[in-house]
Amino acid sequence: MSAEPRAEQRPQFRPVPKALKYIFGLGLGARAVLMSSHLAGWLQDRLELASPVTSWTRMTEGLSLLDHGISPYEGDMFHETPLVLMLFYCLSKIWGGLIPIFFLLVDLVTGCLVHEVGTNVCRHLLEKQGRHVKSYSTDSLSLLLTGKQLNSVPRLMLGAYLLNPLTIASCAAYSTTGLHNLVIAGALLAAVQGNRLLATLATAVASYQCVYPEIFIIPVAMYIAQLEQGSRFSFRDPDSRLSLLQTAGGHFSWLGFLWALSFLPFGSMDWLYSTRGFVMLAPDLTPNMGLFWYFFTEMFEHFRIFFLCVFQLNAVFYVIPLAVKLRDHPMFHLHLLVGLTAVFKSYPTFGDAALFLSLLPVWGHCFKYMRNLFLVVCMWLYSIVLAPVLWHLWIYYGSANANFFYAVTLAYATAQIFLLTDLLYAFLRREFHLRHGPAPKEGQGMPILMNLK
Amino acid sequence: MAERGPTLLFSVFFCLLCYVFHTVASTKDEYSEELLIIPFRSGQVYSHFEFTTLWDVDFAQGGGGRYKLQHFRLFPRALGQVMTEYRVQEMHLTLTQGMWQQDKWGYPVTSAAPGAELWAWFQQEVDDVDQAWFGLTNALSGLFCASLNFIDSTSTATPHLSFRPQGLAEGLFSTKPSHLQYATLPRENVCTENLTPWKKLLPCSTRTGLAALFHAGQLYNTQYSSLGVHLRPVCRNDSCRDASLELRQVLSTVADPPATLNGKQDWSMKRYFSRSLSGPCPMAVTSRVYVDVTTNQTSSFTLKPEPTELKLTNYQGYNRKLAVYDLWSFPFHKEHGLNVDMKWKKEVSYKELFPPRLYVHRFVTGYGQEHGGIMSLLYNRHPYLEQQIIYMELLPWFTRMYLHTLKVETTEGNLVQPLLTRYTPGRDRQNPYLLEIVLTLPPDSTTRISFSFERAFLKWTEYPPDANHGFYISSAVLTTILRQADNFTVPPHMGSGLQSGLFHSSTEFPLRLHTETLLISLPTPDFSMPYNVICLTCTVIAIAFGSLHNLTTRRFQYTDLKKANSGGMRAWLAQLFGRGKHATSEDKLREPGKESEDPGEESETSEENDYIGEQRELVTPRVRAESDKKDR
């Protein structure tokens, strides 16, 4: 939320190019049309778009409980954070019509933020390339980034966010996933700009809102430390350590501040259990696109806690090996984490994955090393089309059962995992080729194996 | 003098004994048994047994624990001890099989929810109400052979408006709102095993008196059958300076003669209880049978034997004619027992029924297994009087109620503004959803209360064995005070026993109605899948973990296949196709690899070779298809 005012001012600084205008117009138009159509009600209950945390029905229930003078955190119907609740409460009190406008605005601002993230990351990559180009192999000129990307990539990202049918549907469903994406995009932008105060605030807001971005602080801290320390950065260097600690400290103090602020409206910390506790313990087994629901429906009672720990650790643990492997590329690490949490979080929606998809164009230069894009695209389409169909067959017609929908969620998760690991593979391979040339020097004409060792 | 010693001792002992007996006898108790038989217009016959024990306990004596119950005489000891142990002030337990049909039968003497319903007020001194409630439900469960031990926090609520204390609640008996506990078990099946312990609590058991009619096989072969135990403190006399403890044991059945007799309504004790009465219970002060003969004018029947008395009552312009058999004055020595026998001249004619002025229906709305709704229709058929009511809905946690969808309106579409809404949201696997609304029903109207809910997905172990049978939602409760009593089957009684209700006029007619229980189906998982699901989901996670592990723990490296000796056929093939197909250096990079042929790796440990073996699995399927296929 804190990212909002900054972002709203941004596009005013320079004239908006024509292509961007089209994207804005088309994206917002599609959202507005969908919102006003009768599909909106159907979309609101789509569990692919709205999880128990982000569902608008639940938000309405929370507002209604508040109207009746009951704390929404007393029951188990509401899991959004108090600040968001208060925001919507004010909006609905001022004028009910503000809410669709607000959702449009949120997506618009997220789009702008993603655009800015694109510009900044591209600039950052080019600068970095400039610094390291001496260490690159002379043969790998074809792999180098060019200034052209600076223009096209952000636009592509904006388009990928605003024109993505998933975000359009998610916005028309009034799913607060849009808001989650906004704060995460805000965190990404603040991170790439490298201002410690802003970056820690933005990550704190993001993790306050969606819990899992807590782990973003590791790449963000590394990035800021590298900016400060330059080439001297190392985990053993006391100065670097101090910088890392400062960032982490900043993050947690902001988080504490936000928590204290949330304490005020209800005078208790019950909300913490209803929001964080809910996401961590995943007690609601309503199907969604994630891996948790069916697994914990079918889990044996005495293994439940163990597997809950395993699954939650699995969602956050990758940050450590990635921090070691990608220690020189914290931005890539951060973007990967956006994707990883979108797969492994306890209540994922399509909207979460859509944000990661819109970040992909920044890493477009790695695409040529990706091996199963076609498979991933097919699996995505398969799951997006079949999820509602099989859901209806199970719940409404009774001719399918839970396994059908489960299969779709498995395919969806697998597709995302393939995409993520493939992206990481492609990135690492490009890095390898940058240093060792696109082809091996000795043994020309020989079949050469490129392999991991 | 030597002879007088034992005499003195004896007289002292005798005095002591007298004193002891005196103190015991000073707690007076009284027992009465009554049976009310009402033939309904629809042909069914309602029999309501009421056994009342009044005990003048000295409440002040016990100090803290007010029910210091001891020296039991007529009051059942088994129940008394439970009440003392858990410091229960008021307790109402009903076990019901079947559904009371308000629109056909009017109001029952005591309304009961289908299944088991238990509510209790604990004494003010009780600190841990939950603990006391847990103890009470378990004790009653043992006492009545019912599944009351399954009552836990998920089915218990504390309604603030609907269940006020029915007995004394002031002075010594004042209590706190939090000390009320209410729970229902709508799925409870009630049968002989509940009746047997219940009738053992009666002073005469089933050997003589009205209880001799209880033949389980007959009682449960009826449309409706309800057992009840109601305990409350009441005023001892009009001045109400002292209190007594009242225990009402209630049994109601509705037999359906036309169904078995081809449309004839004939009813007799012998046929429907397979016994006749042989005399009153010797302990009973009152032992009476009342037969409502008000309808005798319209659809005439003959009543045999002749009643000992005919009584006319009139409350607020509503006349009722009752035939009374007093078992104490009935000439049992002349007759062979008392067999009340009603014989109709004609078959039952199914004409228009007269539903009571106020009644309620409830049903499930919606389709599919994702969402659902509950709708109640509240009928106020009074032509000019409004009716204020309290409507209570208790939903289990797995039907997650949406308060924002709550809508109260008349069927004409006019919104009805509730005077008060009390809502306690539920928590998954912890608390139920409790809704209480105070409404004013407009005269001659039908009011619709509707809301929607979301069906929860349960863990596979939380489903009952017959998961697709569905889940029961307990009945909603409508509580009100009627202003006119002409709707009543029997006006409620402020005093004890049926008699006081039947023959004493009153100006207030508190009424409680229970709606239908509902059966809803929840979406089910595939119960045969746990192992498969665990395997499949873990596999997907393993794909992520394996790939990320590989990519983050190893480095890229060129491997020269030429140097790879002893690759045999596979290396040769790889070479062949590598040469033949791919000309550009870029493509060569994508050649499938046979890692282990690398000479550099020969010296390495087998552990690392294992790693590489793993890697092959991961890499091979992703590389260029053609050469790979032939490779294999």
From TrEMBL, chain B:
* GO BP terms, alphabetized: attachment of GPI anchor to protein
Q: Which Pfam families match?
A: Gpi16
Where in this protein does the record put region Disordered? 582-632
**Residue spans of biased composition, Acidic residues class:** 598-611
Q: Where are the transmembrane segments?
A: 529-548
Alphabetically sorted, this entry's keywords are: Membrane, Signal, Transmembrane, Transmembrane helix
> Which GO cellular component terms, listed alphabetically, does the Swiss-Prot or TrEMBL entry include?
GPI-anchor transamidase complex
The leader peptide range reads: 1-25
Which portions of the chain have biased composition (kind: Basic and acidic residues)? 583-597, 613-632
Classification via PANTHER family:
GPI TRANSAMIDASE COMPONENT PIG-T, GPI TRANSAMIDASE COMPONENT PIG-T-RELATED
Task: State what protein this is by name.
Answer: PIGT protein
Q: Which organism is it from?
A: Branchiostoma lanceolatum
Q: Which gene encodes it?
A: PIGT
